[in-house]
Amino acid sequence: MYHILPQIPQKPNTMLGPSHCQP
After folding, report:
1. Is-contact 14 4, C-beta < 8 A?
2. Surface-to-core class of residue 7, CB atoms within 10 Å of its CB (0-12 exposed, 13-18 middle, 19+ buried)
3. pTM, two decimal places
4. Residue 17 backbone dihedrals phi, psi, to 5 degrees
5. Which stretches of sequence are listed as region Disordered (predicted)?
6. Burial label, 20 (beta-carbon count in 10 A; 0-12, 13-18, 19+)
7. With contact defined as beta carbons under 8 Å apart, do 20 and 13 qualify?
8. Which residues, 6+ apart, have CB-to-CB distance to 2 below 8 Å?
9. Could you tell me the pLDDT band of residue 19, with boundaries at 50, 70 and 90?
10. What 3-state class would DSSP assign to 4?
11. 1 CB contacts (<8 Å, ≥6 apart)?
12. Is residue 8 predicted with pLDDT exceeding 60?
């Protein structure tokens, strides 16, 4: 489950939300 898209630079939640970075 890859919820990390480089198309949404306005959402730095990937760094603040580790649950979103988890596969």
Report:
1. yes
2. exposed
3. 0.11
4. -110, 95
5. 1-23
6. middle
7. yes
8. 23
9. low
10. coil
11. 22, 23
12. no
Cα dihedral 15, 6, 10, 23 sign: negative
Residue 22 has pLDDT above 60, yes or no: no
How would residue 3 be classed by pLDDT, with cut points 50, 70 and 90?
low
Alpha-carbon distance 4 to 22, whole Å?
Answer: 9
Look up residue 23 and give its DSSP letter: -
**Encoding tokens for residue 15?**
């760094």
Helix (H) or strand (E) holding 15: helix 13-16
